[in-house]
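Thread: "does anyone have the structure for this chain?"

Original post by V.I.:
We have the sequence but no experimental structure in hand. Need at least a predicted one for the grant figures.
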Amino acid sequence: MGAHSRKCDWCGSGTPIVRDMEPVNPEYQYWCEECARALVIKGDPIETYRELDGEPIYGRLLDEHCTLKRFYSFATA
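Reply from O.Q.:
Generated one for you, tokens below.
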């Protein structure tokens, strides 16, 4: 089954944008944008991932919401 025919493993309705390549629970590998954003904001980002759309949507979510990256960019500025 291709990634585009899948649904988000968390909410069951969104189109996945990212796949967790080392999931803690194999039942939650594919994440839609909204669920991935919630995961990043919660402070539990996916560490090893693959973008599914070819666009760096998940990478942008990390840049926008990941506190650790903000801290490092602030500390080095």
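V.I.: this helps a lot. The first helix runs from residue 33 to 42.
O.Q.: and The two ends are 45 Å apart (CA to CA).
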